[in-house]
Every structure is written in C-alpha cells, then in structure tokens.
C-alpha cells in the first residue's frame, strides 16, 4: 500500500488543525495540528469513549488559544505534541498517534501501515 497524501504544509495555517479521511470512511478519522514546521497526527477518536469524533465543527480541534486539542463531546484537553490528556474524564490517557511524513517539498503524507517512506 502506498503512502497517502494529505495536503501541503501551507494548507494548514501555523497553530491550526485540520481533519482528514485518508481511508474513505466518510468522516474525518485523522487530525493534524501544525506548529511551525512540525506536524502532529492523531486518530480522531477520544480515548474516553470509543470512536467519538473530537471536533465540534469541521477542522475545529483546538481550544480558543490553540494550545490544546479538545474533545467537543467530553471537554477533555490533550497536549498537542504528546497526545496525553491533561484535563477531563480521561486524565492520563492519550490519543493514538498517526505517523506523518513531511517531505522536503512540504507535502504531508501518512505512511502506509507498517511504515515506509512516501514515494
């Protein structure tokens, strides 16, 4: 299976988030947060309750000041870089990381299962 192209780095404003449906599930299943030239990928599912989507509206995964990922259903807050819950009903639990690859020409890919580099 080939790597899945998500978007170009500049398509996510610095300090913002965006959801993706890389496997064609019919809803966003992956969320990406950009911090400068770094991108953090997470499964769009709160660990507090199964597959509950986290955004309160399309691409709205962050708190007002953009410092935490927030679950709209439970109010849980997660550290952007580590995915660890810092406030809410799943304190100490974490989001499931989605590995991302940022190419030298600023394309963001989700590598295929089992790793590998984008081609």
From TrEMBL:
Residues 4-90 form the Rieske domain. GO terms for molecular function: 2 iron, 2 sulfur cluster binding; metal ion binding. It comes from the Bacteria. Gene3D superfamilies: Rieske [2Fe-2S] iron-sulphur domain. Keywords: 2Fe-2S, Iron, Iron-sulfur, Metal-binding. This is Rieske 2Fe-2S domain-containing protein.
